[in-house]
Amino acid sequence: MRFVIRCLSIAGLSVAAIYVPAQAGDETNRIDVIMSYVEGRAADEADAAFNRGDFPQATQVLRFRNRVLPNYELVATELFWMLLSVQYYDEMLATGKRLRLENPTNPDAGLPEAEFFWQRKLYARIPPILEPMLTVGKTPHANTFRVLAHAYSKLGFHADSVRVWKKYLEIAPDDAAAKRNLSRARDKVRGK
Asked: Cα–Cα distance between 135 and 162 in angstroms, integer?
């Protein structure tokens, strides 16, 4: 990891020294250009490592990118799924939790963490993660509604499942599968 960070840092600074002219009072712009180059180079390196099947190397570069840009959702999400691929579950969950907590206004920030718990049938862990995502003022991804509603059904909280399906159908009224799931959840509430 240190080697990667050193190489990217040296490359970024070298390019910046050559291509970014020093302008009096414009240090912030210069740093932004340097960081943009370093991030672009790191993204290219992560993609190249992934494409050649070197998942540990891709993971290391994604860790670096996530440290440099901790609030960049795409990088955190890529790191989350890469950590799943290499089976670093504890670090993956920490990354998912950090993504969710550092982006409280992003309605999709909790989805990777919730999907991990869904795959492991740990349904009780899902509502505390996804329920707040429905109230941030922006429309979450459809899977946020789906995972949450199904988790409520698995937990036996069918009235909550109905509520979530209804809320989802307000924004996606033509989703036939959601309509069927809403009907099933209503039947369970009625005891059918």
From this structure: 17
Could you give the angle at the alpha carbon of 164 between the alpha carbons of 104 and 182, nearest 5°? 155
Q: How many CB atoms lie within 10 A of CB 101?
A: 10
What are the start-end ranges of the E strands in 95-135? none
Contact 61, 51 (CB under 8 A): no
Query: C-alpha 79: how far from its chain's center?
Result: 9
Backbone angles phi, psi at 141, to 5 degrees: -60, 150
Measured distance CA(8)–CA(139) in Å, rounded = 37
Please state, in angstroms and rounded to a whole number, the distance separating the CA atoms of residues 21 and 164: 54
Q: What are 49-88's pLDDT values in tens digits?
A: 888 888 888 888 888 888 877 777 888 888 888 888 888 8
Which residue's entry shows tokens 């993204």? Answer: 43
181: which 2 tokens?
């799931």
Which residue from 86, 69, 60 is spatially nearest to 1, judged by alpha carbons? 60
Give the integer Cα–Cα distance in Å for 184 and 192: 9
pLDDT band at 162 (very low <50, low <70, confident <90, very high): very high
> How is residue 157 annotated by DSSP?
-
Model confidence pLDDT, tens digit, residues 167-185: 999 999 999 999 999 999 9
Which has the closest alpha carbon to 62: 48, 71, 74, 75?
75
- Considering the entire predicted model, what is its pTM? 0.72
